[in-house]
Specification:
The complex is a heterodimer. Chain A is α/β, with parallel strands linked by helices. Chain A is built from 19 helices and 22 strands. Chain A folds into three domains: 208 residues, 3-Layer(aba) Sandwich (Rossmann fold), CATH 3.40.50.300; 161 residues, Rossmann fold, CATH 3.40.50; 65 residues, no CATH class. Classes of the chains: A alpha/beta, B mainly alpha.
């Protein structure tokens, strides 16, 4: 008998969520980005601690302290990003931290370890050589190694976080076969996925989360894909969506992207951006939105495709070229890609524009200070001084500093990648107001966002991406959460058959 | 009241920032005074000249290294590059090169090695540690090859070309010694400081060291600036080479190994962060002088020179440890326990009493002031005792909770074991 029952009164992330998993069940957990899926799972394996509520595991109250503790109790997780050591062999990866030893615990029993790994693979019907170096396996095989590793811990509960995201169709079939096999042995599994097609193939039941609340739990035989989508998006909309595009008709095209290809996640992307427009880019995680933005900005290598700015062909091979052409990029991960958190507010603001502040060999410190002060006032950035280190500012104010950096540089095409991620509600609306002001001044914005209400509130036009391709374009007048979700969950088979 | 809070905040600000900048110079002064008091004839002009003499070559190369470290890199080659550059110049001199071009050749050789490092780090994206380790060995080899494994002797005073020694140490007509090199060191330091704080190069050095990807995505030509940083390190190594030749006259081939570590140590003592983005030239100069005060001071205490390396090591570790501790303290999130709340409220009371006392004093009521003073002392001792007691109670409570959790867990595990669950391993395939 295996039953997990948990309830929380989380501040925001999870509100009184109930969830149960039965023995030998495959239970799909779906929801938009930020609906609370990962938080729920993190609490279950002890990465996060719940604020209140109870977890019952095998009929016993259970309070996981950390992942190790959960693992001892037989609860394991396969993360979306694999956490293994590429340079070690498969067998070493499986038994890391609990190696078999001989000669009184002094020497490693490599042969015994390999034998045990072989046994394990045989039992799981996996065709993998335990002597192989892990890094040489395909992603699909690596994932199976991770599953085997989890199973070798005598697991009773396995959480799979987007296990199919990086797999080919054949590998997915193989994975599902293994999952069914494990279920037949009594292992309960929680399957988190964005691909709604899969749910009917693999899961017995499905739970939909939305804004930290459980919408419903249903046997998969009783719901259609459309019903699941409706459950995912049917939230109360706190903010009024935009009704009409505020772009003037016949506004000139500022940026034209034509058949852009880059990396794995940008395939034949073409679109226009008009002057004064906020072009929303929707899609689920890993749909290629950020990659498209980075390709346009020259941050990643572009395989093919052309860019035109105001009708003139431009060649952008590096961020330097992009900035010279007036494109500014606000990364979704501010700390890693947008800011130097150990430098001052002033230094961060001036970072892109030191050329302009140079007088002879020296930087005109006074001018830098004046301009920075100007923008601190204009954007209402709350900082005690110009010299304050950026790491001491709140998320909203940090974001404004990045905006200021590009405005000081006179960029008129701005790419906002998740502009309000990690920013509290008050600062959010300030960022929105700022974006609207910018477009009124004639700047053009591409806004990538995973929050549909944000997309609907801000955009004049919406592009939807799925698996590296543009799957839909919606004028704001026709856009709805359901329509966007429909395009965003389109698998690549559907995309190909459509075109 | 407003006045006192202002004072407190000023004290705090000093504790947070001022102390960081004051600490290294204070350590330098304390060391100097210490040796002056306990050492034999340490407070003297010749000793001062010695201190400065010992600071030159490490001083120059450490400034270049500071640039590299702030940019997030490391340069292990500066020491041997300095000596290789010196011996290249000396060999040219031997073959009849005039003095001035020989000296320029030394600088050029330093720049060339820096350029070499820069190419590999910035264009070919190799780790700076590996590249400069290679260059360290290459430059040692180059020195030996060029000089044909013989030493190079620079002109001594009085001989033609001997004037160049005056750049670093001017001997006056009556045996008066003026360490002119100190001026040069200061000039180079001022230039480096201006470069770092007031030019594009400097600001980008900090930006790259702080977050290279953010700098690149801001449209900064990361390759160019990274390259220049290594070229500067090469250039200062060249100047260091000239200073070495001027002070020691004879330069042997394949020398200079270990100097780079002293240069890095100086930067670290001066507060430069090896993870990049943080550091100043002034800090590095202070670090250099701390080391040279040690080098000259320990012999004055009749301690052998190798004690210098010992104490330098202690200071490096101590300086970084102190810095880390202070940073941790500054960013620590403190969980307020009842004991802390009690302490805060008591401290407030004491502060109020102190104010009362000063009010009494101002009014000339000595007796009352004294009474309040006694109250303060009583409150203080009460605070000490109660705080310690509360802390201990809190700790005991914590460990009791932990112990209970552990027992509960053990019981749970035991239960799982006893329960007869299907062992997955033994299920056969259908």
């Amino acid at each position: 008998m295996m039953r997990i029952d948990k309830r929380f009164t989380g501040v925001h992330a999870l509100r009184q969520v109930d969830f149960d998993l039965e023995e030998a069940e495959i239970h799909a957990l779906v929801g938009e980005n930020g609906a609370g899926k990962s938080t729920l799972m993190k609490i279950l394996i002890g990465i996060n601690q719940k604020d209140s509520g109870e977890i019952h595991y095998l009929g016993h109250q259970f309070n996981p302290r950390d992942p190790r503790h959960a693992l001892e109790m037989g609860i394991g997780i396969i993360h979306q990003e694999l956490n293994m050591m590429d340079h070690l062999t498969v067998a070493e990866n499986i038994f890391i931290g609990r190696e078999s030893t001989k000669a009184g615990g002094v020497l490693l029993d490599k042969r015994g370890q390999i034998r045990r790994a072989e046994e394990l693979f045989r039992r799981l019907n996996m065709n993998i050589d335990p002597r192989e170096t892990l890094g040489r396996l395909t992603v699909g095989k690596q994932q199976m190694v991770e599953i085997a590793k989890a199973v070798s811990h005598r697991l009773r509960t396995l959480i799979l976080d987007e296990p199919t995201a990086a797999l080919t169709d054949a590998e997915i079939d193989e994975l599902f076969a293994i999952m069914r096999d494990l279920a037949a042995r009594g292992v309960g599994m929680i399957h988190i996925s964005h691909r709604l097609e899969e749910i009917h193939r693999i899961a017995n039941r499905v739970t939909v989360l939305r804004d930290g609340e459980r919408v419903d739990t249903k046997p998969t035989s009783e719901v259609t894909k459309q019903q699941i989508i409706n459950m995912m998006v049917g939230r109360v909309i706190y903010e009024q969506p935009k009704i009409h595009s505020s772009v003037v008709p016949q506004a000139p095209v500022v940026l034209r992207v034509d058949r852009l290809n880059a990396g794995k996640l940008v395939r034949d992307v073409s679109f226009d951006l008009h002057e004064g427009e906020i072009l929303g880019m929707a899609g689920l995680m890993g749909s290629g939105r950020t990659e498209t933005a980075r390709a346009i900005f020259g941050a990643d290598e572009v395989q093919s495709g052309t860019l035109e700015i105001r009708g003139r062909r431009v060649f952008i091979h590096s961020p330097q070229d992009a900035v010279a052409n007036g494109i500014g990029y606000l990364s979704e991960d501010r700390k890693r890609f947008g800011l130097a958190v150990n430098l001052s507010v002033k230094d961060n603001m001036a970072m892109a524009t030191y050329d302009r502040f140079q007088r002879g060999p020296f930087i005109h410190a006074k001018e830098v200070r004046q301009v920075s002060e100007d923008y601190i006032g204009k954007l209402n950035i709350r900082t005690p001084t110009l010299e304050q280190l950026l790491r001491n500012l709140s998320g909203g104010n940090q974001q404004k500093v990045v905006v200021a950096k590009w405005l000081i540089r006179n960029c008129d095409i701005l790419i906002f990648d998740e502009p309000t991620r990690g920013i509290d509600v008050g600062a959010k609306s300030e960022i929105y107001t700022l974006m609207n002001e910018l477009t009124r001044e004639g700047k053009s914005i591409i806004m990538i966002s995973s929050e549909l209400p944000e997309i609907l509130r801000m955009s004049d036009r919406i592009l939807v991406m799925s698996e590296g391709r543009l799957t839909g374009e919606l004028p704001i007048e026709k856009a709805s959460q359901e329509a966007i979700m429909e395009y965003a969950t389109m698998g690549h088979m559907a995309i190909l058959s459509r075109s | 009241m407003a006045n006192t809070t202002l004072e407190i905040s000023r004290m705090q600000r000093f504790r947070e920032r001022g102390l960081k900048w004051a600490l290294a110079p204070a350590a330098l002064v304390i060391l100097y005074v210490f040796f002056g008091v306990f050492g034999r004839s340490y407070f003297s002009y010749p000793t001062l000249v010695n201190i400065i003499d010992a600071a030159y070559y490490i001083g120059f190369i450490s400034m270049g290294v500071t640039f590299v470290i702030i940019s997030g890199g490391i340069d292990l080659s500066v020491g041997t590059v300095m000596m290789a550059a010196a011996i290249i110049g000396g060999t040219a001199l031997k073959h009849g090169f005039p003095m001035v071009p020989s000296l320029l050749l030394i600088i050029a050789a330093g720049l060339a090695f820096g350029f070499f490092n820069g190419i590999f780090v910035s264009r070919l994206k190799m780790p700076p540690f590996i590249v400069t380790l290679g260059t360290m060995m290459i430059s040692m080899g180059v020195g030996s090859i060029v000089s044909n494994v013989s030493s190079a002797t620079f002109p001594i005073r009085g001989s033609p070309g001997g004037w160049f020694k005056d750049i670093f140490l001017y001997l006056g007509p009556h045996g008066r010694v003026i360490p002119t090199g100190a001026f040069l060191l200061v000039i180079v330091a001022v230039i480096c400081h201006l470069l770092l704080s007031n030019t594009k190069l400097g600001r980008y050095t900090y930006a790259i060291g702080s977050n290279i990807e953010a700098a690149r995505l801001s449209g900064v030509d990361v390759k160019k600036w990274q390259m220049l940083v290594y070229v500067i390190a090469g250039g200062t190594a060249g100047i260091g080479g000239i200073s070495y030749a001027a002070i020691y006259t004879t330069v042997l081939p394949a020398q200079g190994q270990g100097f780079e570590l002293y240069a890095i140590a100086a930067a670290v003592i001066g507060g430069t962060s090896l993870s990049g983005g943080i550091g100043t030239i002034w800090g590095t100069i202070i670090g250099v002088f701390i080391m040279s005060v040690l080098a000259t001071g320990l012999p004055a205490l009749n301690l052998q020179a190798h004690w210098q390396t010992f104490f330098t090591g202690v200071i490096v570790i101590g300086a970084v440890l102190l810095d880390m501790y202070r940073n941790k303290k500054a960013s620590e999130v403190r969980i307020e326990t009842p004991a802390d709340a009690y302490k805060a409220s008591m401290l407030e009371k004491i502060a109020a009493m102190k104010q009362k006392r000063s009010a009494h004093r101002a009014a000339g009521e000595a007796k009352e002031a004294e009474a309040v003073g006694r109250e303060i002392a009583a409150a203080r001792s009460e605070l000490r005792e109660t705080f310690a007691k509360m802390k201990a109670e809190h700790k005991a409570e914590q460990s009791r909770i932990r112990a209970e959790e552990k027992t509960a867990d053990r019981e749970f595990v035991e239960m799982l074991r006893l329960k007869d669950l299907p062992k997955q391993g033994e299920t056969e395939q259908p």
